[in-house]
Amino acid sequence: MTDPPVTGGGPVRTRLMAAGAAVLTVVVGLGARAGMEGDIAKYAGDALYATLVYALVVLAAPRAKPLTAAGVALGISWAVEFLQLSGVPAELSGRSVVARLVLGSTFHTPDLFWYAVGAALGWFLRAAGRRQPAKRRT
To answer: What is the residue range of 70's domain?
Structure first.
């Protein structure tokens, strides 16, 4: 799998787009929590969490290739999930709403799949946005 060619715009434009995507992802994620119930809300939240991490990776490293950023986002998301096996996130989540939103509290194996979906979504959206338009023949 190869990454599409870069169309330009530079790191400043990329960072602005990533920041906007991060804000939009948080809004959609909070809306999903408020408007959905059960497993749909939970798994949508997991996928959006990884998508948010993807946007933050691009914000920090705007020249990163989409596939690299997706791998980093997935690695971070999985690391946070596996950290939940230690009980540290549960302890911190009991003290802070922010910690609960960022770290969660309980390891749940299906979350690993949904993080992959979210990282893939971030990759897909960024890769689609980086494609050069086809040149017209005259």
So the answer is: 10-130
